[in-house]
């Protein structure tokens, strides 16, 4: 059994513990069906109209057609090829990432459908400003794919009139990001302030597109909040180099109650040197990569000052 099959078998075994009433396998070889049947799960190879499934195994090519067929609290096990992460983010607020594993040809992800979408409230808001940063933004989205979704958090992206592949990249990320489009000549602080104003988290993390938060940054910040409460003091994290070892500087998060009320006050906030260092709060520098190729486009942004806010799957 190859690596991809072993990883899929492990994810299927985990998903089968929930005892799905009915499963559907859309993989080409039907390996998932064989595994699920051996685990005592009724698994079909062809979907039946209006029938819901507790577990569906598919690839990104059939994801949009299959997701309405997943029962409440059911699971999707999806194979993604490199560069397809943006499409998965479109499941924000509807599915939670519960397990993932990479293979030489991509990754298998287990996503669980949430029974009550309205109950999700982000605790931390990651607010990123970008301008012609398509290469770094693609890496950031890839990194966010591995972030746990429990506790809930959100991604707010402010684009300052990018003219590179950023717009095409975001067209592949539908229904996921609180996206704001501002004019190209907007001051970076003003753009960031616009993002902070729509963020809903109790803790706010403003960040440029050239950085990526380390896995577990949400839990690290909330552990500190749980022990000390939300204060006006900035929460300090460590910026490390692309090798994830070399210390390159510090980054600061702030509580919503301490958020500056004007762009000018926000600029002064960044000049502060005080704060509390939070263990486990790490951010990594990204190496500028090539501009991503875009295989297709989805619904275009309306080009207005603000798109409809949505929650994020990370």
Fold and architecture overview:
It is a single chain. Helices cover 25% and strands 30% of the residues. The chain has 314 residues and is an alpha/beta fold. Strand 1 (23-25), helix 2 and strand 2 form a beta-alpha-beta unit. The longest helix has 14 residues, at 3-16. The radius of gyration is 20 Å and the shape is elongated.
Please describe the structure with a list of short key phrases separated by commas or semicolons:
9 helices; 6-stranded mixed sheet; 2 domains; Spore Coat Polysaccharide Biosynthesis Protein SpsA, Chain A; 314 residues; elongated; alpha/beta
Mean pLDDT, rounded to whole units? 80
Looking at the structure, what is the overall shape? elongated
Percent of residues in helices = 10-25%
Report, as a whole number of angstroms, the end-to-end distance: 30 Å
Classified by CATH, the class of the largest domain is Alpha Beta
Low-confidence region ranges: 292-314
- Biggest sheet statistics: 8 strands, mixed
Strand order of the largest sheet: 9-8-7-10-13-12-14-11
Q: Provide the CATH architecture of the largest domain.
A: Alpha-Beta Complex
Q: Secondary-structure element sequence?
A: HEHEEHEHEEEHEHEHEEHEEHE
Count the beta strands.
14
Determine the CATH superfamily of the largest domain. Spore Coat Polysaccharide Biosynthesis Protein SpsA, Chain A
Q: How many domains make up the 3D coordinates?
A: 2
SS content category: alpha/beta
The third-level CATH topology of the largest domain is Spore Coat Polysaccharide Biosynthesis Protein SpsA, Chain A
Instruction: State which percent range the strand residues make up.
Output: 25-35%
Whole-number radius of gyration?
20 Å
Question: What oligomeric state is this?
Answer: single chain
Count, helices: 9
């Amino acid at each position: 059994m190859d690596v991809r099959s072993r990883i899929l078998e492990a994810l299927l075994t985990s998903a089968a513990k929930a005892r799905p009433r009915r499963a559907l396998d859309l993989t080409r070889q039907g390996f998932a069906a064989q595994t699920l049947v051996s685990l005592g799960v009724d698994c079909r190879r062809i979907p039946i109209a209006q029938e819901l499934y507790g577990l569906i195994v598919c690839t990104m090519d059939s994801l949009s057609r299959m997701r309405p067929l997943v029962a409440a609290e059911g699971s999707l096990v999806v194979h993604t090829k490199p560069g397809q992460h943006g499409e998965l983010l479109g499941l924000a607020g509807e599915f939670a990432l519960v397990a993932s594993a990479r293979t030489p040809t991509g990754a298998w992800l287990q996503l669980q459908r949430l029974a009550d979408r309205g109950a999700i409230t982000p605790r931390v808001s990651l607010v990123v400003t970008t301008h012609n940063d398509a290469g770094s933004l693609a890496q950031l989205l890839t990194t966010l794919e591995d972030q746990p979704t429990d506790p809930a958090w959100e991604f707010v992206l402010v684009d300052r009139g990018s003219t590179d592949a950023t717009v095409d990249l975001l067209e592949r990320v539908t229904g996921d990001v609180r996206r704001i489009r501002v004019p190209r000549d907007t001051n970076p602080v003003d753009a960031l302030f616009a993002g902070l104003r729509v963020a809903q988290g109790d803790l706010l993390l403003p960040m440029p597109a050239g950085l990526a938060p380390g896995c577990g940054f949400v839990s690290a910040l909330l552990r500190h909040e749980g022990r000390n409460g939300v204060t006006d003091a900035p929460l300090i994290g460590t910026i490390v180099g692309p090798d994830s070892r070399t210390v390159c500087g510090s980054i600061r998060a702030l509580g919503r109650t301490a958020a500056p009320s004007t762009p000018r006050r926000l600029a002064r906030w960044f000049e502060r040197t005080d704060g509390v260092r939070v263990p486990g709060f790490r951010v990594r520098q990204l190496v500028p990569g090539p501009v991503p190729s875009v295989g297709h486009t989805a619904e275009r942004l309306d080009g207005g000052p603000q798109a409809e806010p949505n929650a994020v799957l990370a």
